[in-house]
Amino acid sequence: MDPIESVFEMSAEALNKAFEKLAPALAAKSLQAALDQSGLKATELDALFVCTCTGYLCPGLSSHIAEKVGMRSDSFLIDIVGHGCGAALPMLHSVKGFLKENPDCYAAAIAVELSSTAFYVDDDPGCLVSLCIFADGVNTTLWHHTKEGLGWHCKDFLSLHLPKNREKLRFENAFGKLRNKLHRTVPVLATEAVSELYNRFEKHSQTDSKRLIAHPGGKEVLIELRKALPCDKFEESEAVLKAFGNMSSPSVMFAFQKGIESQPIEKELWLFSFGAGFSCHGCRIVMMH
Questions:
Q1: Would you place residue 134 in the very low, low, confident or very high pLDDT band (cuts 50, 70, 90)?
Q2: Which residues form the Chalcone/stilbene synthase C-terminal domain (predicted)?
């Protein structure tokens, strides 16, 4: 949003129109950059997966993005909504399922959020904290079932759904706008959920060579994670939070990118995301060569 101050005066309709204009453009720019980096053409993509929670379009963002970059008309398009900050990992789980059934295909996965178009102000502490930490962002990754690419393979996925804690973290509608509910117990709830998935991953993996990467949901979240899982400092997550704020669903993928760019000696990266539901998701990513 430019200027960002304009959100204070925008109606619910104006905010959604801004999402409709800006989100497809931002996501298409990210996808095109990823394609350019990989050497692929948009016409070589067979599927596009998109997740978001900060706005709603029908047809979804995938339709607009595919048109902007010039994907084929027979490409498979899917939109994942309603998962909040945790959406990127369920999206990758869906990508893996598609590629397993279509091993010769290329798929793109985009997590895009415009928190500025989900702008709401009142004097509730959770609402005020949300205004302080949330930011706009987008991440694109490209996937294939057999081609090595950078050598990382999504091995296992786990999820945890805790509806008893649904009211602790979710969007609600207030005067036609999206208003974020954020309870002060969320850092502890998130840490408990991540710890449970961590222990379940431990049963699947025999390696001691692993690095943990979590959704950087906020400073207090990282503090609690370090207490519960002192085996890792979550440096990538901290760096993303410091540089970009909490971008919701793209954030864990930003941290993942930092993790692989550092050329880690670890053979496995364990990713964790969490958000509305209350839900938590994990992905064990393994270096294949």
A1: very high
A2: 178-258
* Token representation of residue 59: 């047809």
Neighbours of 14 (CB within 10 A): 13
Distance, CA of 221 to chain centre = 16
Query: What's the chain's length in residues?
Result: 289
> What is the reported pTM?
0.94
Q: 93 falls in which pLDDT band (50, 70, 90)?
A: very high
Domain 4-144 has CATH 3.40.47.10: yes
In degrees, rounded to 5, the angle at the alpha carbon of residue 62 between the alpha carbons of residues 276 and 110 is: 60
Residue 232, amino acid: D
C-alpha gyration radius of the chain: 18
Q: In which residue are the tokens 């938590």 written?
A: 280
Q: According to CATH, where is 3.40.47.10 located in the chain?
A: 4-144, 152-287
What strand order describes the sheet that includes 152-161?
Answer: 152-161, 279-287, 268-275, 210-214
Q: What is the pLDDT of residues 238-285, one digit of tens each?
A: 999 999 999 999 999 999 999 988 877 778 899 999 999 899 999 999
What's the CA gap between 228 and 194, in Å, rounded? 9
Helix axes 61-69, 12-38, angle to 10 degrees: 50
CATH class name, domain 152-287: alpha beta
Spatial CB neighbours of 86, under 8 Å, sequence gap ≥ 6 = 215, 249, 273, 274, 275, 276, 277, 279, 280, 281
Give Cα 25 to chain centroid, integer Å.
18
**Quick one: DSSP state of residue 264?**
-
User: What SS3 state is found at 3?
Assistant: coil
Q: Which two tokens stand for residue 283?
A: 């992905």
Check whether 147 has a pLDDT greater than 80: no
d(CA 273, CA 154): 15
